[in-house]
Amino acid sequence: MMYNTNYLGMGLIWWFVWIILLFWIFALPYSIPGQRYKKDSPLDILQKRFAKGEITSEEYQEKKKILEKDLIKKH
User: Fold this and answer.
1) Can you say how many angstroms the Cα of residue 23 is from the centroid of all Cα atoms in its chain?
2) Is the pLDDT at 26 greater than 70, yes or no?
3) CA distance 54 to 49
4) Are the CB atoms for 43 and 67 separated by under 8 Å?
5) What 8-state DSSP symbol labels residue 8?
6) What per-residue confidence (pLDDT) applies to 56?
7) Distance separating alpha carbons of residues 24 and 21, to the nearest angstrom
8) 55: buried, middle or exposed (CB in 10 Å: 19+, 13-18, 0-12)?
9) Are 34 and 26 in contact (CB under 8 A)?
10) Which of 32, 41, 47, 50 is the 20 to 30 Å CA partner of 67?
């Protein structure tokens, strides 16, 4: 017996569903679980603030010591 396979109809709709799902997972810039972008650590944020000139060198050193102590305590 020969069956006539037809890729239109529901088969075509499922292709669109899969394409939209894959686009949503990989292309949209929303924060989704398992995202591929690394979030900034508190030390990274502190370094950026220092680089922008928002805090002085003394403030940077003080806060860096505090963050490093907290990091050591956690590990």
Assistant:
1) 16
2) yes
3) 5
4) yes
5) S
6) 94
7) 5
8) middle
9) no
10) 32
